[in-house]
Amino acid sequence: MSRFFSTIAVIWRLAKPYFYSEDRRAGRILLAAVIAIELSTVGLRKPVNELYPGDRIIELAIAKGIPFTTASDAHSHAQLSENFPRLAQKLAAFGIHQVCIFEKHQRIMRPLGIEPLL
Q: How would you write the chain as a 3-class SS string?
């Protein structure tokens, strides 16, 4: 049981700055993403027609050193990696050069080989 409480203590130490953030909405979103923030193309299939999350959340995450992971929220094989070229452009525009993946509950950082489009 002590491992459980030590894990909770580590999570709280990481989460506390976001919990007390002046920008409450952004703080709560960042609090939910202490492990990593998912950059998703699902919004490009929706009426909003933009990547999730918005630029403000990405900027805050970069400032706090929170890593990113990617997703397409695919519900069929046809949607796998759909709109990833646009996602790659967004990553490059923000200077994000690596994303994380998870293997056996361990976060592993992977470099990206993308350059911003001119």
A: CHHHHHHHHHHHHHHHHHHCCCCHHHHHHHHCCCCCEEEECHHHHCCCCCCECCHHHHHHHHHHCCCEEEECCCCCHHHCCCCHHHHHHHHHHCCCCEEEEEECCEEEEEECCCCCCC
pTM, full prediction: 0.63
Residues 6 or more apart whose Cβ sits within 8 Å of residue 12: none
Q: What is the pLDDT of residues 15-74, one digit of tens each?
A: 677 667 666 666 666 565 557 888 888 888 888 888 888 888 888 888 878 889 888 776
Q: What size, in residues, is the chain? A: 118
With tokens 């706090």, the residue in question is 64
